[in-house]
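User: Please fill in residues for this 340-position structure.
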């Protein structure tokens, strides 16, 4: 699940670890963005994408438990300039959830260059990271979530907040699908998650990481720096049964200690139901926003950390940062990101 922070495992294998997922409306299209390999993990980050991995966007329709459409991106080994061949396959129906299925080759291209075919555009490469948060605020919240104690922000000064991700980079995959697509027409109700998978010696594929809602790992499993929790390897359809009570109990304990709900257990259950299954819900063709009043996709500008921190504490948390702090890290036209 999404994790943006400095951990030993992420530092060694950043190409396989998902930082963010975005879903929003583009130019008569739906845009899917997956970020991996943040260099906030330090100097050991290996640039580019893993040439033995698959990077997949999974799309569910009308609240279905399983995906009915998968876009699979794969990469070749880097050339002398660090560029990689990229390929996009589409898998529909039952094949969408089968690792053994090959799907249809939609297009081929190279990282750092746009590629397009049949109403689909793809761009992949290194970009300025549009994510923004002051990590000192996160530290003040995820400790109480872990221990089930009251959140104390009395010493937090929003006016002094600084973006801890300023000047950092990530590898990104930007996929844009036209509204003419037979399944992704305006009005379609979709749920989206993404995954990285690595080839195994036995000839199969092993799911390494997945992402849906932002900041799940640092909020609910902050001490699991080696990602031993099976959350990353399971399918979202199993999320609530596997972790729903865990999330509900942690949230209930925090809001009970903080006095922000008269029904802590009920609030905890509501939050768990909101976050699981861990997919981004979006109505195709509508304005996307990951906000307090509604969560409908997620744009590059959304202050998702502020929303998540407020959701799990049951009280408005002021991050001190506005979307303008990262305005130079996004564009209004394809590929919507700023290459480095």
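Assistant: Residues filled in for all 340 positions:
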């Amino acid at each position: 699940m999404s994790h943006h922070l400095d951990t030993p495992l992420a530092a060694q294998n950043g190409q396989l670890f998902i930082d963010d997922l975005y879903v929003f409306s583009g130019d008569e299209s739906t845009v899917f963005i997956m970020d991996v390999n943040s260099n906030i993990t330090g100097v050991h980050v290996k640039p580019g994408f893993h040439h033995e991995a698959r990077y997949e966007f999974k799309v569910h329709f009308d609240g279905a438990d399983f995906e009915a459409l998968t876009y699979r991106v794969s990469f070749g080994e880097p050339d002398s300039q660090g560029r990689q061949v990229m390929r996009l396959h589409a898998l529909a129906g039952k094949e969408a959830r089968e690792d053994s299925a090959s799907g249809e080759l939609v297009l081929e291209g190279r990282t750092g260059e746009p590629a397009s075919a049949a109403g689909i555009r793809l761009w992949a490469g290194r970009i300025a990271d549009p994510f923004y948060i002051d990590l000192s605020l996160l530290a003040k919240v995820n400790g109480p979530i872990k221990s089930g104690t009251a959140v104390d922000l009395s010493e937090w000064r929003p006016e002094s907040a600084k973006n801890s991700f300023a000047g950092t980079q990530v590898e990104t995959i930007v996929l844009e699908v036209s509204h003419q697509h037979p399944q992704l027409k305006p009005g379609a109700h979709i749920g989206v998650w993404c995954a990285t998978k690595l080839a195994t010696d036995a000839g199969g594929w092993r799911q390494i990481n997945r992402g849906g809602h932002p900041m799940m790992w640092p909020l609910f499993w902050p001490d699991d720096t080696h990602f031993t929790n099976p959350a990353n390897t399971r399918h979202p359809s199993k999320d609530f049964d596997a972790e729903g009570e865990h999330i509900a109990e942690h949230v209930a304990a925090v809001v009970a200690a903080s006095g922000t709900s008269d029904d802590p257990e009920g609030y905890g259950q509501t939050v768990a139901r909101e976050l699981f299954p861990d997919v981004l819900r979006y109505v195709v063709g509508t304005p996307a926003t990951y906000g307090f009043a509604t969560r409908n996709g997620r744009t590059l500008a959304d202050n998702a950390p502020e929303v998540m921190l407020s959701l799990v504490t049951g009280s408005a948390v002021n991050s001190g940062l506005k979307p303008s702090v990262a305005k130079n890290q996004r564009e209004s036209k394809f590929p919507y990101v700023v290459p480095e």
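For context: The chain has six helices and 14 strands.
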